[in-house]
Amino acid sequence: MAGSAKSNRPLFDLDLLRSIITVADCGSFTAAAARLHSTQSTVSQKVRRLEDLVGHKLLERGNRDVHATDAGERLLGHARQMLALNDQMFEALSGAVIVTVRLGVPEDFATGATTQVLARFNRQYPQVKLEVTSGLSRDLFASYDRGELDLVLVKQRRGSRESVASRPEKLAWIDSAAHPSFGCDPVPLVTFPARGLYRDDMIQALETMGRDWRISFTSSSLSGIQGAVADGMGISLVPPRAVLPRHAVLGRAQGLPVIDAFELAIFHRPTAHAMVMALAKVLVAMLATKPRAPK
Q1: Residue 7: is its pLDDT beyond 80?
Q2: In the chain, at which residue ranges do the beta strands (DSSP E only) sit?
Q3: Which is it for the CA torsion 87, 88, 93, 95, positive or negative?
Q4: For residue range 208-217, what is the model confidence (pLDDT) as tens digits?
Q5: Would you identify the CATH topology of the domain 14-71?
Q6: Superfamily of domain 172-259
Q7: Paired sense of beta strands 99-106 and 66-68, if any
């Protein structure tokens, strides 16, 4: 009789489970609907059907975000296992890609050591499809908050937002080796756009020194910043890994201060997929290596 009773229990619909997991990961119904290529009302209906099925409220709907209740957290853990088993069955039968991890990194991490690390990760987990986006940290943050990225490595002011892991970001003042401009009055600055990283720190440093300054070149691209400085458009502030042979590194000898207000930080959601967390560990290990000093 006990076995018969168990067989009469309702079965969980994996589509409903995928919907509530996506809402929990994204933190909103709107972002979840976009990721699922559905509508907000449809996703909301699926969550309500699941709540009716289990007889518990699974999500708390706040003014700005959505988070799981205690019952929801318990369900999410089992739901992820069920979907993982479902994916494993498909993997065993077809060998198809079963997990997509959407990663965001700053432009200066889009090549070199980072791509080597990502390639090794892909060889270790061939079932994972990596989708990597590079850009300004503020844009990556915005995409992450909208649920469009699963994992981000970004630059921020130290401690401004709690992260999974972080490392101080050293910075180097650079000028052109062939056509130096630090001696000009006013000092020409090559910067990211307004509200971009390092811009305010550069201006404050020069004003503290009593130097006049002007913005001579603005670019959203790190390569644009690097090229403009190398060609003599002005000085700038960049990570040591972005210093090129055509640059001259400035510092205390020129009266410029050390800027140490920034950090590299890694973010993913607490309920992220196991493969997202696995990749995060790889990135944490990469950050733990000693950064290259400017030449």
Answers
A1: no
A2: 59-61, 66-68, 99-106, 128-135, 151-157, 165-168, 172-176, 187-191, 213-218, 236-238, 247-250, 262-268
A3: positive
A4: 999 999 999 9
A5: Arc Repressor Mutant, subunit A (1.10.10)
A6: Periplasmic binding protein-like II (3.40.190.10)
A7: unpaired
